[in-house]
Write a structure and sequence with these properties.
- This protein has 244 residues and is an alpha/beta fold.
- The two termini are 14 Å apart.
- It is elongated, with a radius of gyration of 19 Å.
- Helix 8 packs parallel to helix 9.
- The longest helix has 16 residues.
- Bound molecules: adenosine-5-diphosphoribose.
- The site of adenosine-5-diphosphoribose has 21 residues, from helix 2, strand 8 and helix 10.
Length: 244
């Protein structure tokens, strides 16, 4: 795999890099994207019927069961070479921020340290009322487990459709995008806001934007470099080409 020489030089010199990742990065770990994951039993539901506050209010058991099922799917997978390449980049670039829309926790599992999880983490469970996190819960299969403190229903600590993103994480992500020299957009369709706007925020402040994706996205015409292919192949090759 060959890369433009000016990209390699730029990466070798950069001191501030931010990367935004999406479902595509986990695809090679065998995790299907949210929409693809709705197979079999779950195919009859729209995403909004499984992942929104309204859905939880209407049928908490359905939503709890869907996430319990996805949580098990996530437990069965491991990081792939794309995740590990991002760990290598973090070791080599002085200031590196990894911003992810993924809730699977695979970046941390791979060893990434400075990770902003914009959409939460599916392995974390919290009370829907008092926000207390639950480490353990009994699931009798009949009803949604309840908070030990206030008795509220437990829910996954992920951002549902129509919910706000965690403020501190979002602010840190915007700051990283605005101040980086190079911004990577990797394996994301770039259509879900506000994450999608980060690449533009970076670009408007003069950062070089590099996109890695299987196929072009709305960002592609604005990107300085578009590296087309699998992130699990491109990122390790790029690390090797830049840092040897
Ligand atoms: N390498 C690189 N890119 C890939 C790969 C791969 N191996 N496989 C798929 N892709 C690309 C696809 O071409 C697509 O552009 O990854 C992108 C995945 O897009 P989405 O499924 O829309 O995922 P994402 O951008 O993370 O979605 C954002 O939407 O469903 C909600 O909250 C959910 O966080 C999610 C958000």
């Amino acid at each position: 795999m060959t890369f433009p020489a000016d990209l390699l030089t730029l990466l070798l010199r950069t001191s501030k890099l931010a990367a935004l990742t999406g479902a595509g990065v986990s695809q090679e770990s065998g995790l299907r994207t949210f929409r693809d994951a709705q197979s079999g039993l779950w195919a009859q539901y729209r995403p909004e019927d499984l992942a929104s506050p309204e859905a939880f209010a209407r049928d908490p058991k359905l939503v709890w069961d869907w996430y319990a099922w996805r949580r098990e799917a996530v437990k069965a997978v491991r990081p792939n070479p794309g995740h590990y390449a991002l760990v290598e980049i973090e070791k080599r670039v002085p200031h590196f921020t990894l911003i992810t829309q993924n809730v699977d926790g695979l970046h941390r599992m791979a060893g990434s340290r400075n990770v902003l999880e914009l959409h939460g983490n599916i392995q974390r469970v919290r009370c829907s009322e008092c926000y207390a996190f639950a480490e353990t819960w009994g699931d009798d299969g009949e009803s949604v487990p309840r908070c030990e403190i206030c008795g509220g229903l437990l829910r996954p600590d992920v951002v549902w459709f129509g919910e706000a993103l965690p403020r501190e994480q979002l602010e840190a992500a915007v700051e990283a995008a605005r101040t980086c020299d190079v911004f990577f957009s990797i394996g994301t369709s770039g259509v879900v806001q506000p994450a999608a706007s980060l690449a533009y925020a970076a670009r408007n402040r003069g950062a070089v934007v590099v996109e890695v994706n299987l196929e072009p996205t709305p960002l592609t015409p604005k990107a300085d470099f578009f590296l087309q292919g699998k992130s699990g192949e491109i990122l390790p090759a790029l690390v090797k080409a830049v840092w040897g």
